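hey so i finally got around to running the thing on that chain from the lab meeting. sorry it took forever, my laptop kept dying and i had to restart like 3 times. anyway pasting the input first so we r on the same page abt which one it is
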Amino acid sequence: MSSEKDKSKVHKLSLKGSAKLVAEFFEYSINSILFQRGVYPPEDFTTSVPFQMTIRALLIVSSVKKYGLNMLVTADDQVKAYIKKIMSQLNKWMAGGKISKLVVVITSRETGEHVERWQFDVQIFGKQTKVSSSRKAPDSENASPGNTDPTASPPIEKTEKEIQDEIQAIFRQITASVTFLPVLDGDCTFNVLVYADADSEVPVEWGDSDAKEIKNAEKVQLRSFSTNNHRVETLVSYRLAE
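ok and heres what got predicted. didnt touch it at all, straight out
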């Protein structure tokens, strides 16, 4: 009886539903990283991917209940519009199974050095491995760890609560990252990089970019989450203060 009841709670998402869940996770991740790492507090900052925009952003946030947590998201209209533009294209690529990695890079505005790099590797179960160009220079990484081996073991079916708990654990780690990541000095900018299959349709506003790696970086592997169609691994790299 108990076994049948547990089985009835299994939330088997369609590929489209799973892609939407992952894209939504990315949107909240971008907001959470920028807030927790103090990128918003500077009076203004510049973002350059996929559009070159200058946004004057004060620390204006609102609280949204999501994943059983109070998620802080920007309430600034310009910042919201910018993230919405990113997500509009991201949703299309996710729905088409084109994305293998999303990266949020925080860069010192004063020195131009990359100080933090948040990487989310996306594995699509059963997808054939493809070359990924994803708006990166030709001499940068091409084969993404997010691409999958179609012979890999099928994922374990999970309940909706189990999936939510895994996502919740990642956001708790992002919040707790302030305890081990160096304080960001001065004004910072951020870039969003998306690794998509080489045959993806790319809007003219999106341009190729280098990987924006951090030299001699310390790396911390965070938790992951998975549905019956996707698995997302999280890694943060950072530069140690001299």
